[in-house]
Amino acid sequence: xxxNIIIGAQWGDEGKGRITDLxxxxxxxxxxxxxxxxxxxxxxxxxxVFKLHLIPSGIIHDTVACIIGNGVVVNPQxxxxxMDALAARGVNVSPACLQLSRQxxxxxxAHIALDKxxxxxxxAEAIGTTLRGIGPAYTDKANRTGIRAELLADPxxxxxxxxAHVAAHNQVLTKIxxxxxxxxxxxxxxxxxxxxxxxxxxxxxGVVIDAxxxxxxxxxxxGAQGTLLDIDHGTYPFVTSSAPTAGGALTGLGVGPKVVGDxxxxxxxxxxxxxxxxxxxxxxxxxxxxxxxxxxxxxxxYGTTTGRPRxxxxxxxxxxxxxxxxxxxxxxxxxxxxxxxxxxxLKVCVGYELDGARLDHFPSDLPTLARCHPIYDTLPGxxxxxxxxxxxxxxxxxAQAYVNFISDQLGVPISIISVGPGRxxxxxx
Length: 429
Ligand code: IMP
Hints:
- This protein is 32% helix and 21% strand.
- By secondary structure, the protein is of the alpha/beta class.
- The strands form five sheets. It has a ten-stranded mixed beta sheet with strand order 9-7-5-2-10-1-11-15-19-20, sandwiched between helices.
- The protein binds inosinic acid.
């Protein structure tokens, strides 16, 4: 059986959690491969809303084993907090069900303090990070000074590593950023306690995944963030510090490309982003408020991790073409189609206008992107609630036309459409 990959096709928050939950029903293993607790994946089952930041969304299925892969950066405190919250709701988070790669890197309070200090120093130029220590943890990884999860099994080495790590980062925190140093003994004591609980979950995740694939079991790679937040293929520097794209799934789990089956891009029926940086189809005013929602519902456009209101705009096919290319998407899952009901006319960006010429691909540099103006096609909207629709042919004709227009333009089939937050509010094609 293959490794199927779920990728965010926009700037994150596309609804990957619910698509993972849907596809996890046919998977034996669900594995996270990049990012950390900067992600916010929401799964709604009946009245129950599960908000997960770090633990793979597959954990809610009791037949699925979940792996946090080597490409993930893990705040052990957050992992334990999520495990306890899930266990309190009857979800099995035993080592048989939830495994952590020995090669994953740990996020420490020093990383979080640095993230905050750096963002403060950037002032108006701030990236708008989630302040979870993600960038500094990946910096340490690339700098070969990180702390890998494998040390959770070795208390003495872990204590030494934490003391050296905090001492080194305190230099930067105090001398460069002028903030208070951390107490290494306090951090080391906390990590010793985390280690006791997390050590039984450690595995060589690449070996586990390889064995599963060879045994004919199916593995679902759960992406976090999105294509435009990729450190290479996103809107640099307003990106995260990892590779949420298909290539990142391979290195983040320790498998080669030949095991890959489907690569499902998840895209919202419109566009959102949190944080700073250019956004060609961004909307303001009435329509922005309409798409964002008030914040009263868990599915309104407010960050799951930060609570920040998301910026919203029309669907941008230049972005989705970029996602198709970077990830070799084999299918698309279109989420939140229901939010577009009762809007008389829907705009879809089909290309950019740059200095009087048409541009069909997503530019790689921000100054060029900032000069791009969207070229829109206008499609007629549809009236009425579609949240109870389960068959494609029962969608209003204009909703079907909207979906078909997107797949025709991209040359990628749209195989899943979500029409509401619930697990069952899904149209499969
Ligand atoms: P960081 O990943 O916390 O360093 O944040 C870097 C950028 O990625 C910021 O613009 C964040 O808002 C954005 N970001 C990180 N994770 C997510 C996510 O899960 N959804 C949406 N945006 C995210």
